[in-house]
Amino acid sequence: MSKHPIRVLIVEDDVVDRIACRRAFAADSEHDFILLDSESGQQGLALAHSERPDCILLDYHLPDLTGLEFLARIGADPVATAIPVMMLTGADSAAVAAESMRRGARDYLVKDVDGHYLRFLPQAIDRMLREQRLLDDKRQVEAKFRTLVEQIQAITYIAELDEGETMRYISPQIQTLGYSPAEWLAAPGLHAGRMHPDERLAALQAIVASRRAGTALRLEYRLYARDGAEHWFRDEAEVVRDDAGVPLFMQGILVDITPNKLAEQALLQSQHELRRLAAHQESIKEGERKRIAQEIHDELGGLLTGIKAYISVAIERAEAAGRPAEPLLADAAGLAQDAIGTVRRVITDLRPSVLDQLGVWAALEWYVEQVSQRAGLHCSCHIDAAAAALELGPERSTMLFRIVQEALTNVVRHAEASEVSLSVRRVAGALEVVIDDDGKGIETERLLNRESWGILGMHERSRHFDGELNIHGKAGQGTTLQLRLPLEEDNGS
After folding, report:
1. Whether the predicted model's global pTM rises above the 0.85 cut
2. Are 62 and 34 in contact (CB under 8 A)?
């Protein structure tokens, strides 16, 4: 495999040192060094200008110039200024080396009296050139980026007011799609031909309608570049009219919105994943509620029942022995009964057993009755026969129950209502759930409050199943919650 040649200009007034450098380069088997010699600074500058070597090996002490003067002059030469320079300094010249780097030297090597530096010379030159290439690549990338940023602009066009796609003018920025303005103008059907099939028909209809009616155009669609790359564009055009108001032509711009579309798609994907995660967490939460409710029922409920039984036995034994029972025992029995009632309410709030045992419709009727008893509200529940015949599945059933539960909880806590009704009916391809109350009406600020976790939770629960949840309130006239839930195909809908 041939080695890439490296052209090195050695600017060194000491002939012995020049010979030593040549031998060091010649002894290196990894590179093909082509060497140029100069014994003075002026001669070195002339060779750098005329020969354009890959790099310069510069001794600081020259008969006519110092190394710093050499660096200053080569930096002023528009031809040779980009040539990287490695400075050879004395062992006690750290300050000189630092100043050389500040003045433009790419690297330096300490020239010791024993000549040990010669062993590192080829590798040092190779390292410097690799760093120089990286620097050049970086500069090129930065230059391209600057050019891109400075020249990015929309594709502008002027189109005839006909039903075809005849254009009078297209700006040079059409080259972003790989076409010259002449190519684009010479082929009126090219625009339509490069549209994405999914948007072509609707886009062309909108364009034709806009030009025929002389109305503004606002449209988004994809165009394929010559190389097949897909770009999203926003097409905006206005009719240009003469002083008499007669339409002359359409003047528009095509703005590349591909990054925005990609970001939008990424955001939608992120939202989808977050909703899946939220649904998974809700599933886990429901499982935990069920488990905790079961444990409370089995453990705490059993203990309280046992305590009450022991107290009852103690009271019965005292009465059987003809002694009055300790009054505190009767109080303890009452407290135990109250505790059992509290445990039952906690279990019901965690996971009502009726939801798992009898299904969502019975659970909704039961829960409405519970709210009526606890809150003193007049509550009604109507589930039509078509809806009651549906089997929603455990996840949808839980979602529906929790939304109703949250909604009725909000009515009790915030609505100041005296009546509330729940109705469920089956409509075309969907289930419709409506909750009405006669309270003070939910405030708009609360609906828009992103920290209203209950409302947000209801929305997210419904969205996971492609449901649509709407809440409307009017001051003094109550609040209406409406949930529209698409029915699954396997329900026979």
Report:
1. no
2. no
